[in-house]
Design brief:
With 302 residues, the protein is α/β, with parallel strands linked by helices. It has one domain: Rossmann fold. It has 11 helices and 7 strands. It has a 7-stranded mixed sheet with strand order 3-2-1-4-5-7-6, with helices on both faces. Strand 2 (79-83), helix 5 (87-93) and strand 3 (114-115) form a beta-alpha-beta unit. The model is unreliable at 1-5 (pLDDT under 50).
Length: 302
């Protein structure tokens, strides 16, 4: 298999410095929308007949701490690993709750997941709502591929291109810069998975409609969920007068439900793909890792 990195395709409009700054931000709580998406993704674990014996949670605080405990409950025997930019906080936040008992002698301290190392290999890598924030997604997919055992699989979710489409239209009509960078289509994610060494990618998407009673509540929610990472976004703070114009534009321009609530669309993409047995390229001289050679021999392939 050819593992030579290809030229990275930049994410349209994404400011890599701003994205890295947002991803490196210290967090103690997970966004509510990420928890909801992770809950829906966890339901898809029942599709797999053979449950993974080990798994790696990528950026668990960003992806959902409640979901982390749910996946652990669904995979009680699986070894758990964590990978995060803010690793100490992530390990502390993902510790299992201690077992309660009336007898203090029976109290058991909750287990802490293991910190993932470069050499860590797992049967499943779980990454919720992280990929659309990554300035170099193809490089990240290759990192994920390296962490997964042969015949293991990746499960991930991210935002799709219809996310905040109503907000984009309002900004465009007003002549303002984009409110967010462009999000990648699920078919393009499928192609990138294959180019990164994965096989049998299965992509799915759904649209979630958020509703709000007033524009200030909508903006407050968006600030808690993320930031505008577009390279051509407004520079610096906006004035109070501009904020009032924005609120009025939202009240006038957003679609409404039958009971008058403001509506906003979020497109969520779900994907999973397997890491197949490596195939040695034909040539006068071939280098194959020991792990790949063992996998090829176990599969009976030459």
């Amino acid at each position: 298999m050819n593992n030579t990195p290809e030229a990275e395709t930049p994410v349209p409009g994404l400011d890599p410095v701003a994205a890295q700054r947002w991803l490196q931000r210290s967090r103690t709580q997970s966004p509510w929308l990420h928890e909801e998406v992770a809950s829906r993704m966890a339901e898809r674990l029942q599709w797999f007949r053979d449950k993974p014996s080990s798994w790696l949670h990528w950026e668990p605080v960003l992806g959902g701490l409640q979901a982390h405990q749910r996946v652990r409950s669904l995979l009680p025997q699986a070894r758990c690993h964590v990978a995060a930019r803010q690793l100490p906080q992530a390990l502390l936040a993902t510790r299992e709750p201690p077992s309660a008992s009336w007898n203090p002698l029976n109290w058991v301290r909750g287990k802490t997941p293991a910190a993932a190392q470069d050499e860590t290999r797992v049967a499943m890598l779980w990454a919720n709502m992280a990929l659309h924030l990554e300035p170099q997604p193809q490089a990240l997919l290759r990192r994920w591929h390296a962490h997964i055992e042969t015949n293991g699989f990746l499960m991930f979710s991210c935002l799709g291109p219809d996310t905040l489409r109503e907000l984009r239209q309002i900004y465009q009509r007003a002549g303002w810069p984009e409110p967010t960078h462009a999000f990648t289509d699920m078919h393009d994610w499928g192609d990138m998975l294959v180019h990164s060494g994965f096989a049998e990618p299965v992509m799915d998407m759904e649209r979630i409609t958020l509703s709000y009673s007033a524009a200030p509540l909508l903006l407050k929610d968006l600030r808690e969920l993320g930031r505008n990472l577009h390279a051509d976004r407004f520079e610096g703070w906006r004035s109070r007068a501009w904020h009032e114009r924005l609120c009025q534009a939202l009240e006038d321009g957003l679609p409404r439900s039958e009971d008058g609530r403001l509506l906003l669309t979020v497109e969520v993409i779900y994907g999973h793909a397997f890491k197949p047995v490596a195939r040695a390229p034909l040539g006068s001289s071939t280098a194959v890792s020991v792990d790949d050679m063992r996998a090829m021999l176990r599969s009976g392939r030459r």
